[in-house]
Design goal:
- The structure holds two protein chains of two kinds.
- By secondary structure, chain A is mainly alpha-helical.
- Chain A has three domains: 46 residues, no CATH class; 58 residues, no CATH class; 49 residues.
- Chain A is built from eight helices and two strands; from the N terminus they run E-E-H-H-H-H-H-H-H-H.
- Chain B is of the alpha+beta class.
- Chain B has an eight-stranded antiparallel beta sheet with strand order 2-3-4-5-1-8-10-9.
- In chain B, a hairpin with a 4-residue loop joins strand 3 and strand 4.
- In chain B, helix 8 crosses helix 9.
- Classes of the chains: A mainly alpha, B alpha+beta.
- At the A-B interface, strand 1, helix 2, helix 6 and helix 7 of A face helix 4, helix 5, strand 6, strand 7 and helix 12 of B.
């Protein structure tokens, strides 16, 4: 089979495009494919990220001028990796774990769309991170207890609680390897 | 290179196992996406930071994660030849992304090639377990134990509410993608698959060609996997997928029976014509090869073709891809040269198979 574009070289790439149920077949050679910018199978040129960024652009409400919303989006910057929300909508991927906190208020609508309405994790918890979360919860409980003790002027108990908090925090930061 | 040695290098050891439901299910795969807490994700990190991750892997990941798996070997992309990388992609052990976009990408491989852990791909770690046949739970258990093994060494990016944090929000939560590779020639032939796919999609599962997103289903091989990673437990995801795949298997078997009952002679004709093409052609394109291999594999599975091993479809589909063909030839090939080489390779492989089966018959007598 010869390439349907140039009609010279043999066709080595065969595509089937299905748009709205309409099937079109392409048979082209590598050179024409590159020129046409058609994706080589499996190269992911049009990947989930392109589709995802389509989903992410729902932000601009109809009627609002684009410059205004551009300005707004520019304001959020991830403190750890520097990613802006605008960049995120382009690449469809986050730059670091802190991004999830930075863009937290915009996250849930996106997650709902891609995960069938779900927004919270229900699966596995890593042992070590699990332990750290446990300690964090304990520390928070103890802090509020300590406040109570201080309010009731039970300073000895408050000091004891403070020491426990310190040792817990020390342990978690040591285990966390930070 | 001799054909036998080439095949033994080209075919992953796990592919020789047949596994449950191997008349339809070729392989089951589970992968976890994981990231390090204190490092920027690979998509934004620089070479330096990625190198640090590699260094950590090199120094910390030396022990044996699982006695059935043995030691893992670290292969860095920069020290591999282009053709070697391409071969790894064609064996589904690494992604194209790792070659094309990653800075200081690497892969940890087990000797039997069941386990591959990509480092510095889209996420810091992509833990993948591939097993033969319909064995999702086996793949999951193994991937899970490898995940525990890595977690004992590093701090994962994890959030109590959002789960495992991944670069792409489509993976967040469990970070798990479970998939099953199925050979569905009868459902394609009877045009039933077109009706089944939309139903599967409604259940939060996706059907794709064998090389993932956007790839065509070469040789009637389809991949069914979970789309949703958040809000469901790992076990639920595995069980949902398992249930759907079981139904698809039943439908395929029913379609095969119906074809045998209603149009046996047409089916035989189709299968033997394809076998004839494979045995005799001198130039063959990958698409035609895949179609013929699919027909012959169907013939083997329904007992029409004897003297050929089941794994031949998997094996030859992988062997006749451009990367492997060029490795076999030891040189880069033009498309026409590839088609000639492909035809030769298939003919020789079938010849070898007939010799082996004759020999084993002789041994039995």
């Amino acid at each position: 089979m010869t390439c349907q574009e140039c009609g010279e070289r043999p066709a080595t790439l065969h595509f089937t495009k299905i748009i709205n149920g309409e099937k079109t077949e392409f048979h082209i050679c590598e050179k024409c494919a590159k020129e046409k910018g058609e994706a080589e199978p499996g190269t992911n040129h049009f990947s989930i990220h392109n589709l995802l960024s389509g989903l992410l652009n729902f932000e601009t409400p109809i009627g609002e001028s684009p410059t205004q919303s551009f300005y707004k989006q520019e304001q959020t910057n991830c403190p750890k990796c520097g990613l802006t929300y605008q960049q995120f909508t382009k690449i469809g991927r986050f730059g670091c774990s802190v991004c999830y906190k930075t863009f937290a208020d915009k996250l849930d609508p996106i997650l709902k769309k891609v995960h069938g309405g779900n927004t919270a994790h229900a699966g596995k918890v890593p042992v070590r991170a699990g332990a750290a979360i446990e300690i964090e919860r304990k520390v928070q409980n103890l802090r509020s207890k300590m406040k109570e003790y201080i309010e009731h002027e039970e300073f000895e108990k408050a000091a004891e609680t403070r020491d426990i908090i310190r040792s817990l925090e020390h342990r978690s930061s040591w285990e966390g390897g930070e | 290179m001799s054909l036998e040695r080439f095949i033994s290098e080209a075919v992953s050891p796990w592919m020789k196992d047949e596994g449950p439901d191997s008349d339809i299910v070729m392989s089951s795969r589970v992968r976890f996406a994981r990231n390090l807490k204190n490092y920027v994700f690979p998509i934004l990190s620089d070479r330096e930071q990625n190198l640090e991750v590699i260094k950590e892997v090199r120094s910390e990941f030396n022990d044996v994660p699982d006695e059935h798996i043995g030691e893992l070997e670290l292969l860095e992309m920069e020290s591999l030849k282009p053709i070697e990388k391409r071969v790894l992609v064609e064996k589904h052990l690494i992604s194209r992304n790792l070659i094309e976009q990653s800075k200081n990408g690497a892969v940890l491989l087990s000797e039997n090639e069941t386990v591959s852990i990509m480092v510095n791909e889209e996420d810091h770690f992509r833990i993948q377990c591939l097993v033969a046949g319909f064995e999702l739970k086996k793949a999951f258990t193994l991937a899970n134990s490898l995940d525990d093994w890595i977690e004992s060494k590093v701090d994962y990016a994890f959030d109590e509410r959002k789960g495992y944090l991944t670069s792409c929000p489509t993976n967040v939560g469990t970070g798990m993608r479970a998939s099953v590779m199925l050979h569905l020639p009868a459902l394609v032939l009877t045009q039933q698959l077109n009706h089944i796919i939309p139903a599967i999609n409604q259940l939060g599962l996706v059907v794709r060609g064998s090389y993932g997103e956007g790839s065509e289903a070469l040789g009637n091989i389809f991949q069914i996997s979970n789309q949703i990673t958040l809000g469901k437990t790992e076990t639920d995801i595995i069980e949902d997928l398992q249930g759907v795949v079981m139904q698809v298997i039943e439908k395929e078997r029913a379609a095969r029976r119906a074809l045998l009952d209603n149009s046996r002679i047409e089916l035989e004709d189709r299968i033997y014509r394809s076998l004839g093409i494979l045995e005799n052609s001198r130039i063959i394109q990958s698409k035609e090869a895949a179609k013929c291999l699919s027909d012959v594999r169907l013939g083997i599975d329904i007992g029409l073709v004897n003297g050929l091993s089941k794994s031949i479809l998997t094996e030859l589909l992988i062997l006749t891809q451009p990367g492997f063909l060029q490795q076999f030839a030891g040189a880069s090939l033009t498309p026409t040269e590839r088609d000639i080489k492909r035809a030769t390779l298939i003919r020789e492989r079938l010849e070898l198979e007939y010799q082996l089966s004759k020999k084993s018959e002789g041994d039995e007598q």
